[in-house]
Design a protein that fits this description.
By secondary structure, the protein is of the alpha+beta class. The chain has eleven helices and 21 strands. One of its GO terms (biological process) is lipid transport.
Length: 612
């Protein structure tokens, strides 16, 4: 009877241990012979020295005899050393051949497994094609009829009666819009069987295109010449400068590379987790490289939900919580064990040749399993050639990603573009250090393409840099890619350079709140290419917002003049977020207080204001 895989593995393990013990004893023999050679060699050298100093006399014969004995011992020891070396070499060569055969067997087994997986993938495709053409079965039918093409490929595939396990096998209408999940499980005969499970809930097919951007001429200087030095949010701008997304939707775009946080949640090491969090912070800028359009300023109380729970395992909510200064709060939670929250206030200045956008506020990421709490801030965005030339965007500044639980830190530096610099454009570098300041990882790459990270093995002080500061030289292992930008969809240059995720953000959806950005009429008109109507609608919404603000101010004045205690002039309160002090980071920010998704499930939006 052939041994099982477990017995075979145990036998090979004991054989390797025995071989290692034998080789260890041979090494000890070599060490002993080496010591003897050194000892006898030294004695022989002393005897030869004494022999040279003797006068010719009666004790000459005695000294010669001693030298002869020493030489004989040295020769015997040398022969023993040679024999021990020969035995060690022979034993190593013999076992080397056996180990090479074992390694070759492992390689062959891996190839067989890869071929098996490839075959299973083909069976998967055949099964999907077979079920795609299936019809709706009556509820009284208890079996699955028709194996399709997959039964011809592999007779070992097992199909069970649907009533045997109603939780695993459900007969439902098989339509291409329904999601299909293929599970692999082991049968009692140690062979792989394929079980097809159809989900009841369809996954929505998101749109991949929006109407092309119209080519409207606009005299830019006639609008901008009177705006130099002013706050951008206070400048009345036509939609010609915009893109058909709101700032809330742009904030939600930070989640395009949510997989980085999924991987970070699985990390056992907080330092390695820091690398993925740092890569996530860089990835949020990748969509801005060609996005020269200005997002719509959200109206006070405007919201935006991004529900990707079924496809990606997360969902997020944004709300405009303040208008002057404009501030947006964002909260996202994932089934993979992480949550993200941020409150961003944009300060912007028009400087004539360029526009500077300085995001104020912090971003926080929390992991349930490790209780690690990270926070960081955003860098400055600069839009160049506002008046003359082609618009282009640059990101510059420094980011400190801090783990408040462990004290780990990642210092990221976004190098500003310089015509005279020899560095790669849009370069980003970073170093991950522990609480004692010891470097463990180095990150490098560009914010518009990819990032790599490598483990630091040793660090040393190098030569002085251009600014007179002493540079640190890190000896690292080979760099590994940690993030890479997704390619833009076909025709993106005609669709505001939107990514695949951005194309879906303004897609109409049912069941969303009446304050959602998708319901904003001026933004919808702009997306449809009706820019003149969008400009008129934009002015109407802004005037409606100013009227609502004046009404709140009148109520605030009445509240101040009233005898009630605790009245405050600013009586506006966000609907889904509340302002709290974070004890971990020491910052004050709007935190999601709950209730939105419950209201959506109930279809009850009575508490929402009429802002559109």
């Amino acid at each position: 009877m052939p041994p099982t895989s477990g017995q075979g593995g145990g036998g090979r393990n004991s054989e390797v241990q025995s071989t290692l013990r034998t080789l260890g004893s041979k090494v000890e023999d070599l060490t002993t012979c080496n010591d003897l050679i050194v000892k006898h060699g030294s004695a022989l050298q002393r005897s030869l020295s004494e022999l040279e100093g003797l006068r010719v006399g009666g004790d000459m014969g005695e000294k010669i005899r001693q030298v002869t004995e020493r030489a004989t011992l040295f020769r015997i020891t040398s022969n023993a050393m040679i024999n021990a070396c020969r035995d060690f070499l022979s034993l190593a060569q013999n076992h080397s051949k056996r180990w090479q055969k074992a390694l070759q067997a492992e390689r062959d087994q891996r190839i067989r497994l890869e071929e098996t997986l490839e075959q299973l993938a083909k069976q998967h495709n055949h099964l999907e094609r077979a079920f795609r053409g299936a019809t709706v079965l009556p509820s009284s039918f208890s079996g699955v009829s028709g194996k399709g093409d997959a039964s011809d490929e592999d007779d070992d595939n097992e199909f069970f009666d649907a009533m045997e396990d109603p939780a695993e096998f459900i007969t439902v209408p098989a339509d291409p819009k329904y999601h299909r999940l293929v599970r692999l499980s082991c049968s009692s005969h140690n062979s792989l069987s394929v079980c097809v499970v159809l989900s009841l809930n369809p996954v929505r097919q998101r749109r991949t295109r929006i109407p092309d951007k119209p080519n409207y001429y606009l005299n830019l200087w006639s609008i901008m010449k009177n705006c130099i030095g002013k706050e951008l949010s206070k400048i009345p701008m036509p939609v010609n400068f915009n893109e058909p997304l709101s700032m809330l939707q742009r904030l939600s775009e930070d989640l395009e590379y949510y997989e980085l946080l999924d991987k970070a949640a699985k990390c056992q090491s907080s330092l390695e987790q820091m690398c993925y969090v740092a890569a996530f912070t860089v990835s949020s800028y990748s969509t801005t490289v060609h996005r020269t359009g200005k997002p719509f300023n959200p109206l006070l109380g405007e919201t935006f939900e991004l529900d990707r729970l079924r496809e990606c395992g997360y969902r997020s909510l944004c709300e405009q919580v303040s208008h002057h200064p404009p501030a947006a709060a964002h909260h996202a939670a994932s089934e993979k064990g992480w949550s993200l929250r941020q409150e961003i206030t944009l300060a912007s200045k028009f400087r004539g040749k360029y526009l500077s956008i300085m995001p104020l506020g912090s971003i926080q990421c929390l992991f349930e399993k490790s209780n690690n709490h990270y926070s960081w801030k955003k860098v400055t965005t600069t839009v160049h050639n506002i008046i003359v030339g082609k618009l282009w965007i640059d990101q510059s500044g420094e980011i400190d990603v801090v783990n408040h639980r462990t004290g780990d830190r990642c210092h990221l530096k976004f190098a500003p573009y310089s015509y005279f610099s020899r560095d790669v454009p849009r370069k980003v570098t970073g170093v991950v250090t522990d609480k004692d300041g010891k470097a463990h990882y180095v990150l490098s790459g560009t914010w518009d393409e990819k990032m790599e990270f490598s483990r630091v093995m040793q660090s040393s002080k190098g030569e002085n840099g251009t600014e007179g500061k002493q540079r640190t030289v890190y000896q690292t292992l080979k760099a590994k890619e940690i993030w890479k930008k997704n390619p833009l969809p076909e025709g993106a240059e005609n669709m505001y350079y939107f990514s695949s995720l951005a194309l879906t953000l303004n897609e109409p959806e049912e069941g969303i709140a009446p304050t959602d950005s998708r319901r904003r009429p001026d933004q919808r008109l702009m997306e449809d290419g009706r820019w003149d109507e969008a400009n008129a609608e934009k002015q109407r919404l802004e005037e409606k917002q100013r009227t609502a603000r004046r009404e709140r101010e009148r109520e605030a004045v009445k509240a101040v003049n009233s005898p009630e205690e605790g009245a405050h002039p600013d009586n506006y309160q966000a609907l889904w977020f509340e302002k709290l002090d974070d004890p971990v980071s020491g910052e004050t920010l709007h935190v999601y207080k709950g209730g939105y998704w419950e209201a959506k499930d109930q279809g009850n939006w009575d508490m929402c204001p009429d802002i559109f």
